[in-house]
Specification:
single chain, about 270 residues, eight-stranded parallel beta sheet, about 40% helix, globular
Length: about 270
């Protein structure tokens, strides 16, 4: 896979909280860190990475371009600012964070600028996030599916997003699941708890393993060392076909993230 299967998310973590989370994660063996311009924590993430002493080539760092920076004359400069904050010469993956509200900047323009950033060596791979099938089709028309490494979407047992997943996979675009634990909602699910008990695992491990077994990359976040350590064990957990089918049945189209004025008309 071009995108590592397991990483550390930093959404909603700022200041010393994100420094501690990233520092602990790196110490425990995490090597994939996901941030974004709008999280306003790139400088702190960069600080934690620099302090870890881990060689840059051992890390996989992702950030996302915010909608205010989509214009052709702004996108590359904003990416350079992100690199400066993260104390690195390149990103491993750069995503378009959300579609441009009301198509203020055409898909062709911002995808073209993102591809140019890749050609300049500012980022090794590029992708999209929170796109509909129609927007993905526009992105593919603009730069070709072979240049889109991943599509990062809200995806958890209660929102399995199958239409978008199937289209992305049909184009060879990998899915990255964010909010895989649905803000902790799925951890209370009786079915997932039952599977976890039987496998002597945690509900979080079961849910993360479910997503990875479907071929998705996951980027769970935590501020607690015990959870960061525990989540890592999802990489060694295997669910049976029967368990996978049971979790597939939990889908109820429950979307938790749809910011007004930014979210597209979802599929």
């Amino acid at each position: 896979m071009s995108i590592p299967a397991f990483g550390l998310g930093t959404f909603r973590l700022q200041g010393q909280v994100v420094i501690d989370s990233v520092s602990t994660g790196l110490e425990l063996g995490y090597r994939v860190i996901d941030t974004a311009q709008i999280y306003e924590n790139e400088a702190e993430v960069g600080q934690a990475i620099a302090a870890s002493g881990i060689a840059r080539e051992e890390l996989f760092i992702t950030s996302k371009i915010w909608v205010a920076n989509f214009a052709k004359d702004r996108l590359i400069d904003s990416l350079k600012e992100s690199l400066n904050k993260l104390q690195t010469n390149y990103l491993d993956l750069t995503l378009i964070h959300w579609p441009s509200p009301e198509d203020q900047v055409p898909v062709e323009e911002f995808m073209g600028a993102l591809l140019e950033a890749k050609q300049l060596g500012l980022t090794r791979q590029i992708g999209v996030s929170n796109f509909t099938v129609d927007l993905m089709q526009q992105a593919i028309a603009a730069i070709g599916a072979e240049n889109i490494a991943t599509h990062q979407i809200e995806l958890h047992p209660y929102l399995q997003n199958r239409k978008v997943v199937e289209f992305a996979q049909s184009q060879g675009i990998q899915i990255t699941s964010y909010m895989t634990l649905a803000y902790g909602e799925v951890l209370k699910d009786p079915l997932i708890q039952q599977i976890a008990d039987r496998l002597q695992a945690t509900p979080a491990q079961v849910t993360l393993a479910w997503a990875m077994q479907l071929g998705y990359a996951v980027i769970p976040s935590s501020t607690k060392r015990v959870n960061l350590q525990s989540n890592l064990l999802a990489c060694t957990l295997t669910l049976s076909d029967a368990d996978m089918a049971l979790i597939a049945g939990l889908d109820r189209g429950q979307r938790l993230t749809s910011p007004k004025g930014i979210a597209p008309q979802w599929d």
